[in-house]
Design the sequence.
């Protein structure tokens, strides 16, 4: 196990956790949460135990929304919501709400989550593939020159970071025709770098990578889009209703909202998204430079499309991959196994992942290559 600080409640040392999600939560947030689980705002009642209509939770929710707005520089004409069902529910909720029968939405096919999104959309309307990297095992983001939009898409969906493949959009997709708006699944890179929210109509992100809690989904949506719902939706799936009720149509995921709120505060304490980006770039560089410097590993992603969050690579054989994962694990570098669909290794280094972990992995990679090359 690698040594990381402990406190009174925590006597077990923490490993360097490369999990793709749920992923690392900032240690400061974990400590604050431990206290608030016992008693929130000096109330003598823990955060899990407060009514979602009480004044303590009012404060939690208001602060979470306000902090999220500040961190993401989110304009007033966007709603911030905390919904349930994970990012996967947004795969169907978005087309159910906005894609009428007979209408077309454009999707970028860049990996498993993009593929799930477009499959769900087909239940409600037509889907046009605007760009795909399927032919090259999803090793890239489609070049603008290869993108073809349909004549009149309702919206254009893309996955800003492909968690499994280790590719990421480092630019916006090219502008779509008409008044189509961008829908973005930002689950695995939300708030890892500055974001210009005004370029999007609808952003969603499951919490368990950069925001803390699994199950709770952050949704950021422009007001005028809320007016464009095309179906009479069940209450829980009605974005307009959820916005009106501040995500509290029913009992919301109170702990998830609390935890996201703490993570927003932590991001601000780090200096905001511009600083977070620098920290993330430095971590990713340590590992990518090591990959590139050794004639042993094979990175999966095309260089210009490499993800800052999820680094995917292979050794020369499956046998060595297994050995790499097992030996790394013994050294406290855990959860490096790649997704079953592409195998190999995946080092996920989200916002809260420490720089020392990237250094430790790089050092391990060098030793491993030397011993097994
Ligand atoms: C980019 C992306 N989208 C969607 C999902 C699905 O999220 P959830 O499990 O919260 O439904 C994931 C999960 O890893 C993801 O990485």
Sequence:
């Amino acid at each position: 196990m690698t040594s990381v600080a402990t406190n009174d409640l925590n006597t077990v040392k923490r490993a360097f956790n490369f999990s793709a999600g749920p992923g690392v939560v900032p240690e400061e947030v974990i400590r604050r949460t431990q206290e608030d689980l016992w008693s929130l705002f000096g109330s003598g009642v823990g955060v899990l135990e407060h009514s979602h209509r009480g004044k303590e939770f009012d404060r939690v929710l208001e602060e979470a929304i306000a902090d999220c707005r500040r961190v993401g520089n989110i304009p007033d004409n966007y709603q911030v919501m905390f919904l349930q069902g994970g990012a996967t529910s947004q795969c169907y909720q978005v087309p159910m709400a906005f894609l009428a029968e007979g209408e077309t939405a454009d999707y970028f096919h860049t990996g498993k989550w993009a593929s799930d999104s477009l499959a769900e959309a087909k239940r409600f309307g037509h889907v046009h593939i605007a760009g795909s990297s399927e032919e090259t095992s999803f090793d890239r983001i489609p070049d603008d020159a290869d993108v073809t939009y349909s004549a009149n898409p309702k919206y254009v969906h893309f996955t800003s970071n492909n968690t499994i493949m280790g590719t990421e959009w480092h630019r916006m997709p090219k502008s779509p025709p008409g008044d189509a708006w961008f829908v973005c699944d930002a689950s695995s890179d939300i708030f890892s770098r500055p974001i210009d929210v005004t370029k999007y109509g609808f952003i969603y992100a499951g919490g368990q990578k950069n925001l803390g809690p699994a199950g709770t989904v952050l949704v950021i949506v422009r007001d005028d889009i809320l007016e464009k719902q095309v179906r009479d939706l069940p209450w829980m799936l009605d974005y307009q209703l959820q916005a009106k009720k501040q995500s509290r149509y029913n009992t919301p995921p109170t702990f998830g909202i609390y935890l996201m709120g703490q993570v927003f505060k932590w991001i601000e304490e780090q200096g905001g998204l511009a600083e977070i980006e620098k920290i993330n770039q430095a971590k990713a560089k340590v590992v990518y430079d090591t990959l590139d410097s050794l004639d042993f590993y094979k990175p999966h992603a095309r260089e210009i499309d490499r993800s800052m969050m999820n680094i995917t690579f292979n050794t020369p054989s499956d046998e060595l991959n297994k050995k790499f994962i097992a030996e790394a694990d013994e050294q406290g570098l855990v959860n490096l196994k790649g997704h079953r669909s592409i195998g190999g290794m995946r080092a996920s280094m989200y916002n809260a992942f420490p720089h020392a972990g990237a250094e430790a992995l790089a050092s391990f990679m060098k030793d491993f290559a030397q011993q097994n090359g």
Remarks:
- The mean pLDDT is 96.
- The pocket of pyridoxal-5'-phosphate is lined by residues 21, 86-88, 113, 159, 163, 185, 187-188, 206 (CB under 6 Å).
- The chain has two domains: 16-27+272-372, 32-269.
- Residues 273-293 form the longest helix (21 residues).
